[in-house]
């Protein structure tokens, strides 16, 4: 007992000192996460947290899934890294798997979502250079999120970033979601692509209309410009289909994947059709692009999502989650309950998002508030009905405690 206390105190000391060594970029709560299993995380004090942020829409198979542990063990015993100059077996097999299950023919692998989007932006600019007389502008949406590199921040339509890290990368024009007139007005002879999320994730779960996307597709065909869909948050079963574009009856020219594709391992991909295989050696690459460990993990995660039909499961559980949220909504004044599959959100009657997140965390539940009036839920695709019921109990208690109610 004494020994446990000692260790705990020591851990506390170490953490306070160590915190001083981290560059400050985020307000993090005090607890230190130590272990994960399925829907739960545990901190160093042994407290359990039911995770309805899914590691930020990343842990598609839940925390520390056995398949990922096994494949890491096996692949790390065989080959951890060769070099970006060589093929490796998992790289070839994983690329083949992704092209088999999508409308695309070619894959470029990277480590983070922003990097995959950088690849998409570069490919669109290359296309503009060789096929459209040097057109380079990309139309993106307000309220969108495409990453944190300079180019992807410039592509992102987030007003808080408008004047951050100036000068921005030029060549991006932002238009409101589901507004065809605004998009058509922005298209010019300089345009090489339109880039969008089908469900805006970080923006607070705003869904692109089917007719809007279908019309954009036709416009892209008419003008010869590329349609880029950022599926970093929506891809790999999250919205109830393997890829969100499947809901729309539309095929993009380029798609990017990240987050859930690695189940927690840093991995992303940019996919395109064979007619846009335009890079020449040296144009695009990276030390870890197609890295064997990442490739083996990604292949295992995607295969698991296919074998266990986790897209269908996400669809069913998402419907149940929305239904139950609607039943709670009257009591606490929750509104605009929305989502696709397990990418869901609702609005609060007051700007208490951060307070509600903190209150839930204290009670052992992790949720996310992308803005003060919005709560977003994106649990693992493997979430059970009992987990959803448990989440709703804690959420209701927390809503009661902070005193929100229907007006
Ligand atoms: C998270 C996210 C990104 C950025 O991915 P990182 O891995 O953080 O670089 C880009 N686009 C969308 C839609 C995202 O949700």
TrEMBL record:
<dbReference type="Pfam" id="PF00202">
    <property type="entry name" value="Aminotran_3"/>
</dbReference>
<keyword id="KW-0808">Transferase</keyword>
<dbReference type="InterPro" id="IPR049704">
    <property type="entry name" value="Aminotrans_3_PPA_site"/>
</dbReference>
<dbReference type="InterPro" id="IPR050103">
    <property type="entry name" value="Class-III_PLP-dep_AT"/>
</dbReference>
<keyword id="KW-0028">Amino-acid biosynthesis</keyword>
<comment type="pathway">
    <text>Amino-acid biosynthesis.</text>
</comment>
<dbReference type="InterPro" id="IPR015421">
    <property type="entry name" value="PyrdxlP-dep_Trfase_major"/>
</dbReference>
<keyword id="KW-0663">Pyridoxal phosphate</keyword>
<dbReference type="InterPro" id="IPR015424">
    <property type="entry name" value="PyrdxlP-dep_Trfase"/>
</dbReference>
<dbReference type="GO" id="GO:0008483">
    <property type="term" value="F:transaminase activity"/>
</dbReference>
<dbReference type="GO" id="GO:0030170">
    <property type="term" value="F:pyridoxal phosphate binding"/>
</dbReference>
<dbReference type="GO" id="GO:0006526">
    <property type="term" value="P:L-arginine biosynthetic process"/>
</dbReference>
<dbReference type="InterPro" id="IPR005814">
    <property type="entry name" value="Aminotrans_3"/>
</dbReference>
<comment type="similarity">
    <text>Belongs to the class-III pyridoxal-phosphate-dependent aminotransferase family.</text>
</comment>
<dbReference type="InterPro" id="IPR015422">
    <property type="entry name" value="PyrdxlP-dep_Trfase_small"/>
</dbReference>
<keyword id="KW-0032">Aminotransferase</keyword>
<dbReference type="InterPro" id="IPR004636">
    <property type="entry name" value="AcOrn/SuccOrn_fam"/>
</dbReference>
<protein>
    <submittedName>
        <fullName>Acetylornithine/succinylornithine family transaminase</fullName>
    </submittedName>
</protein>
<dbReference type="GO" id="GO:0042802">
    <property type="term" value="F:identical protein binding"/>
</dbReference>
């Amino acid at each position: 007992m004494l020994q446990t206390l000692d260790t705990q105190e020591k851990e506390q000391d170490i953490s306070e000192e160590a915190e001083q060594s981290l560059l400050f970029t985020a307000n993090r709560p005090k607890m230190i996460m130590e272990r994960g299993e399925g829907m739960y995380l545990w901190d160093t004090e042994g407290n359990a947290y039911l995770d309805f942020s899914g590691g930020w829409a990343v842990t598609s198979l839940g925390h520390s899934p056995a398949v990922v542990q096994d494949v890491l063990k096996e692949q790390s015993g065989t080959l951890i890294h060769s070099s970006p100059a060589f093929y490796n077996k998992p790289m070839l097999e994983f690329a083949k798997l992704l092209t088999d299950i999508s409308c695309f023919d070619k894959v470029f692998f990277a480590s983070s979502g922003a990097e995959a989007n950088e690849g998409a932006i570069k490919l669109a600019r290359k296309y503009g250079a060789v096929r459209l007389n040097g057109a380079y502008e990309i139309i993106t949406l307000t309220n969108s999120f495409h990453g944190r590199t300079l180019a992807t921040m410039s592509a992102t339509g987030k007003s808080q970033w408008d004047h951050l890290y100036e000068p921005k990368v030029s060549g991006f024009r932002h238009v409101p979601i589901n507004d065809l007139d605004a998009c058509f007005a922005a298209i010019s002879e300089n345009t090489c692509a339109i880039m969008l999320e089908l469900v805006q994730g970080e923006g607070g779960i705003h869904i692109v209309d089917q007719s809007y996307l279908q019309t954009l597709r036709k416009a892209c065909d008419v003008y010869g410009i590329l349609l880029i869909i950022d599926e970093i948050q929506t891809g790999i079963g999250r919205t109830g289909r393997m890829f969100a574009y499947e809901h729309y009856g539309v095929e993009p020219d380029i798609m990017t994947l990240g987050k859930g594709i690695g189940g927690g391992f840093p991995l992303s991909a940019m996919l395109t059709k064979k007619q846009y295989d335009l890079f020449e050696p040296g144009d695009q690459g990276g030390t870890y692009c197609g890295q064997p460990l990442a490739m083996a993990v990604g292949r295992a995660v995607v295969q698991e999502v296919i074998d266990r039909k986790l897209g269908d499961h996400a669809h069913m559980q998402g419907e149940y989650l929305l239904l139950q949220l609607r039943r709670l909504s009257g009591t606490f004044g929750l509104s605009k309950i929305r989502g696709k599959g397990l990418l869901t959100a609702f609005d609060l009657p007051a700007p208490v998002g951060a307070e509600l997140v903190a209150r839930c965390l204290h009670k052992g539940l992790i949720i996310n508030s992308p803005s003060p009036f919005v709560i977003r839920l994106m649990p693992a695709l493997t979430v059970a009905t009992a987990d959803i019921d448990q989440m709703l109990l804690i959420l209701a208690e927390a809503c009661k405690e902070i005193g929100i109610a229907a007006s």
